[in-house]
Amino acid sequence: GQQLNQSPQSMFIQEGEDVSMNCTSSSIFNTWLWYKQDPGEGPVLLIALYKAGELTSNGRLTAQFGITRKDSFLNISASIPSDVGIYFCAGLPGYSSASKIIFGSGTRLSIRP
Amino acid sequence: GAVVSQHPSWVICKSGTSVKIECRSLDFQATTMFWYRQFPKQSLMLMATSNEGSKATYEQGVEKDKFLINHASLTLSTLTVTSAHPEDSSFYICSAPLAGANNEKLFFGSGTQLSVL
Q: Does A95 score more than 80 pLDDT?
């Protein structure tokens, strides 16, 4: 079946650093969603992307819908302690039927001691 | 964004008892809701799709008699874990889609941590 490869699996950041993570697939997606999950909480939607090449920002977060429609990137600029958590990408192969949504394995962001 | 409310946040129960988890869309109607299970340090695994007015659709390997789903109204879906056992201990999350003109977003509840003793 369709799979999303999300990388990196985990990363340590220092406050103030920029962060990049991405998701790739061998299949085409028509929607990309990026979520953040804090411990013991449900995922919170950060950014939604609907068109190939689309670049969308939400504060210090910027996400892009890859031109090939097989990948997406999330960047966080000037990281702060509250950015710590797990980030999930999710892809929708169609324009609806959210049941078909596929999740990446997550990127765990931690603060470097 | 849209709000999905999930209760309880956590529950501890004895083996053999049943536990009900509620998922409500607070400011929009959801004819469909989704139930996920998440193990520590892993991604979300879809268990079933809850459909208002009809039977739920279960993913392969999920026991429908074990995980009873009821979509009582356009804003409420419930998941009942029947005769719970320790291996049912997990983090359960619901979600509901909010459709736009040519797009769709998926909003999640805050999750329920189930611990079966």
A: no
CA distances from A46 to A13, A32, A104, B66 (A): 19, 11, 15, 33
Searching chain B, which residue's CA lies closest to the CA of residue A108? B41
- Distance from the A11 Cα atom to the nearest Cα atom in chain B, whole angstroms: 14
Q: Is the pLDDT of residue A99 over 90?
A: no
Q: How far away is chain A from the Cα of B91, in angstroms, using its nearest Cα?
A: 8
Residue A2 binned pLDDT confidence (cut-offs 50, 70, 90): low
Choose among A48, A92, A99: nearest Cβ to B46: A99
Report the pLDDT value the prediction gives residue B101, as an integer from 0 to 100: 61
Q: Say how far apart CA A23 and CA B11 lie, in whole Å.
A: 34
